[in-house]
Amino acid sequence: MKRMPIQIRFTDIDIFGHINNARYPELFDTSRYLYLTELISDFDPNGKSMVLVHLETNFRRQIVFEDKVFVETCVEKVGDRSIGMRQRIINEKDGTVHADSYGVLSTYDAVLQQSFPMPDAWRRRFEEARARAENTEKH
């Protein structure tokens, strides 16, 4: 499980005084990217890497400029060619969940423009990350 602090910028705030809902996927994307590149150092954007193929988000509570929040990211499922990732935007002060998201990423070969079987080294790292996340949730 990885935590990434979020810096709320004035330009994130809409006319209603909260972060616009279009900004949430960007927050999830940034955190997911940082987490994945920490786990897998040999992604190659011009070769073999992973792409987002599914994303669903639940907006639970608005985020205002004064809130201090972070994104929590973990690997929840590992498949033959894909992984499922769970993410949450959490308030540092009281632990309230502002939004949660589930995304599926597929292996992708940019040259062949198709998915490929997940390399064993990637699978091992994802499985280790999944197990760590499970252990964290139990404690």
Description:
By secondary structure, the protein is α+β, with helices and mostly antiparallel strands. The protein has one domain: Roll (Thiol Ester Dehydrase, Chain A). 25% of the residues lie in helices and 36% in strands. The protein is built from 2 helices and 5 strands, in the order βαββββα. It has helices at 24-39, 120-138; strands spanning 2-6, 48-59, 69-78, 82-91, 97-109. A 5-stranded antiparallel beta sheet has the order 1-3-4-5-2. A hairpin with a 3-residue loop joins β3 and β4 (82-91). The chain is globular, with a radius of gyration of 16 Å. The chain starts with a strand and ends with a helix.
Key attributes of the depicted protein:
139 residues; alpha+beta; Thiol Ester Dehydrase, Chain A; 5-stranded antiparallel beta sheet; 5 strands
